[in-house]
Specification:
Distance between the termini of chain B: 50 Å
Helix content of chain B: 40-55%
Structural class of chain B: mainly alpha
Oligomer: heterodimer
Order of helices and strands of chain B: EEHHHHEH
Largest sheet of chain B: 2 strands, antiparallel
CATH architecture of chain B: Orthogonal Bundle
Shape of chain A: globular
Number of domains of chain B: 1
CATH architecture of the largest domain in chain A: 3-Layer(bba) Sandwich
Number of helices of chain B: 5
CATH class of chain B: Mainly Alpha
CATH superfamily of chain B: BFD-like [2Fe-2S]-binding domain
Number of domains of chain A: 2
Number of strands of chain A: 20
Strand order of the largest sheet of chain A: 6-7-5-15-16-17-14-18
Radius of gyration of chain A: 20 Å
Shape of chain B: elongated
Order of helices and strands of chain A: EEHEEHEHEHEEHEEEEEHEEEEHEEEHH
Distance between the termini of chain A: 43 Å
CATH class of the largest domain in chain A: Alpha Beta
Largest sheet of chain A: 8 strands, mixed
Strand order of the largest sheet of chain B: 1-2
Number of strands of chain B: 3
CATH superfamily of the largest domain in chain A: FAD/NAD(P)-binding domain
Amino acid sequence: MSEEYDAVIIGGGVNGLGTAYHLGKKGFTDVAVVDKSYLGYGASGRNGGGIRQQWTSEENIKLARESRKMFEDLDEELEEDLEFYQGGYLVLSFDEEEAEEFKENVKLQNRLGVESEFLSPEEAKEIVPELNISDVVAATFNQSDGTIYPFKVIHGYANRVREMGIDVKEHTEVLDIETEGDEIKKVKTDKGEIKTDTVVNAAGGWSSEIAKMAGAEIPNVPVRHEIMVTEPYQRFLEPMVISFSHGIYFSQSEHGNIVGGIGNPDEEPGVNQKGSLWFLKKFSDTLLDFIPRFSGVNMIRQWAGLYDTTPDAQPILGSVPEVERFYQINGFSGHGFMVSPMVDKVTAELILGEEPSIDIERLSVERFEEMDIEEEGGVVG
Amino acid sequence: MTTVVCRCEDITEEDIVEAIEKGYDELEKLKRHLRLGMGPCQGKTCLPLARRILGRETGKSVEEMGDPTSRPPSQPVSFSLLASLEESEVDE
């Protein structure tokens, strides 16, 4: 079986499908989205659904700010209840030095139009009355942050792009990308060959492998991050609560479940999506320290997903030097969902040769050779 | 007559048939679209029933329907119990 498309998007996660959606909206519908499994098998279907604009780098703040605005209208656009709940993000600090950085972060965020606030521990407790603030030094809060149900977004995009005439091919694994010189000729899959000259690499934790197939190099490394969910309860927690120093995040979904995770600084890189008992112990210890009243709450399920990490924890977007029309939209380092609407829109614009809505030149893979790297300090989990 | 298939998440046979008609035609997709099997029993009751409905509606084989991963724990566990584990018990 041989087919031909104007573009092939590899990865049926939020960024692959979102890019297809923005291409389709502009009438560019001779597109195939391929995924080796079901839609959302990767990080898009394994994350905590956090939508945060409180970042420390200008690029991430702008992308997250514009994306949050787009998420607010996405229910209507996708004709799907996405369960976007804007209960805010409460970021806790446990030491003076970090609290000083928080002040600077808030200044930068405010300057860029994100209305975050610097709070005392007592003010943080007003937002989460159950919070143990004995060691909390300061906090920041932004009301328009929140959480969303990732699968509704993924399925919403998939349903709309199919209506537009874009083909979504699940259980179709890319085996190779054939090039001649610096031009793409074909994408070879386990279901047959697809002729195309344009490929989008939205493969998350598998992005490096895909890039290699086309003869390009990106520095992304997949790293496991674990997560769990409790039984659903009536709402008692408004915001997502996070701490960079503890690596923990937890929130209550609109459905009522507490969803949360904690990072393991010693995690070995590699494709591993298994849950561990170590994680449950570590998460429970830390969670009960933050909110002792959680002690009787039952967790019901744990799983894991991959952060597609880059050396500066910022995404890789746009074209690569080695191959023409090979667009990267990967390396999100754990925050690919929350910036997806704007990033997807810009990727569609690049593919069509239009002026991008936001300048993303600093996020090109070439930054690792040519430009100064500014590391994003606000990664959690 | 309404038949409840997933008691934890209150999902009926009609809900499942409607979702299949919309294209959620694998167990993995039904699970995520409807939260089928995502409640406290973790699908022990509803997934075999949903598999039967999916087979009836689509004619798919067991392999084609997919088999969602059984996630730990097998039954709900409180955070206080998890926190009481010794470090030596959770070494990876």
